[in-house]
Amino acid sequence: MLSLKIENLAVTFPGLAAPVLEIDHLEIAAGSHVALTGGSGSGKSTLINIVAGLERIRTGRVFWGEQNLADLSEGKRDQWRAQNIGLVMQDFHLFPGLSALDNILLPARLSRVANAELLKRARTLFETVGLKRPEQHIETMSRGEMQRVAIARALLRKPGVIIADEPTASLDLESGEAVGDLLLSVAADAGSTLIVASHDQRLVERLGRRLSLKSGRIIGDVPVGEIAA
Ligand SMILES: Nc1ncnc2c1ncn2[C@@H]1O[C@H](COP(=O)(O)OP(=O)(O)OP(=O)(O)O)[C@@H](O)[C@H]1O
C-alpha cells in the first residue's frame, strides 16, 4: 500500500504549444480507490503512464511513498514498477507465442519470484476472471479474454498499487461487473491503492473518489458519495 503525491507536474510533447498534462498538486491516500474520468484526449492515459513510471518525468515530482520516480533511471523504474505496481494497459502488452497462463506468470518469472504458490494463485485468478483454457495461446483469444488475462497478470503479486486503464472496455456487462468485483476485492484484500481510468459509469461509481480531467488539468475531485445524481 503506497500513497501518491504529485507536485508541479507538466508533460509536454514536441510540437505542441501547451502541456498535455499540468498538475500543480495532487495527493492520493494509501489504500484509497480512485476513478480517473474525462473525455477522449483529456490526459488520462498520459497521467497513468507518468504515475506508473512508464514515461520519464521532465518537469515536476511524483512520489509513491518516499520514492520520487524522477530520481530513478529507466532500468530502476522498471524494477520498481515490477515490485510495486500491477498494471492493466489499454493495449494489454501480452506476449504472443505464450499460453494465457504463461502470460500471467511471465513478469513474476522475469523477476525470479515465481514459485508453486504463485502458480496456484495464477490458476485461481484465471478461473476467477471467468476463463477456462489456461493453455490457450494468447493470440487466439478474443479481445475481452485478453483483457481478463491482463487483469489476472496485474493482480498476481497482490501489488501495493493497482493501475488500470479502461479495464472493462472490451467486456460485456456481466464480465465487466465481474472484473470490477475482482479489482475491488484484490485491492481490499491486499490493501492496494487503486487507480482506474474509465468511461464505465457503473465501475466509476464503485470507487471512492473521482478525479475529472479536462485538457490535461484536474477540474473535479470529489468523493463519489457526494456526486449529485
Ligand atoms: N507522444 C505524444 N505526442 C504528442 N501528443 C501526444 C502524445 N501522447 C499523447 N498526446 C496527446 O496528449 C493528449 C492526452 O492524451 P491521452 O492519451 O492521455 O488522453 P486520454 O484521456 O487517455 O484519451 P482516451 O480516453 O481517448 O484514451 C491528447 O491530445 C494526445 O493527442
Question: Any chance you could write out the topology, listing elements then pairs?
Answer:
Blueprint: E1 4-11, E2 21-28, E3 33-37, H1 44-51, E4 59-64, E5 67-68, H2 74-84, E6 85-88, H3 100-110, H4 116-128, H5 143-155, E7 161-165, H6 173-190, E8 193-197, H7 201-204, E9 209-214, E10 217-223
Parallel strand pairs: 3-8, 3-9, 6-7, 7-8
Antiparallel strand pairs: 1-2, 1-4, 4-5, 9-10
What keywords describe this structure?
7 helices; 229 residues; six-stranded mixed beta sheet; binds adenosine-5'-triphosphate; 10 strands; single chain; alpha/beta; Rossmann fold
Task: Write a structural description.
- With 229 residues, the chain is α/β, with parallel strands linked by helices.
- It has one domain (4-224): P-loop containing nucleotide triphosphate hydrolases (Rossmann fold), CATH 3.40.50.300.
- The protein is 34% helix and 24% strand.
- The protein is built from 7 helices and 10 strands.
- It has helices at 44-51, 74-84, 100-110, 116-128, 143-155, 173-190, 201-204, and strands at 4-11, 21-28, 33-37, 59-64, 67-68, 85-88, 161-165, 193-197, 209-214, 217-223.
- The strands form 2 sheets. A 6-stranded mixed β-sheet has the order 6-7-8-3-9-10, sandwiched between helices. A 4-stranded antiparallel β-sheet has the order 2-1-4-5, covered by helices on one side.
- A hairpin with a 2-residue loop joins strand 4 and strand 5.
- Helix 3 packs antiparallel against helix 4 and helix 3 packs parallel to helix 5.
- Residues 13, 16, 20, 38, 40-46 line the site of adenosine-5'-triphosphate (ATP).
- InterPro entries: AAA+_ATPase, ABC_transporter-like_ATP-bd, ABC_transpr_LolD-like, P-loop_NTPase.
- Keywords: ATP-binding, Nucleotide-binding.
- GO terms for molecular function: ATP binding.
- Pfam families: ABC_tran.
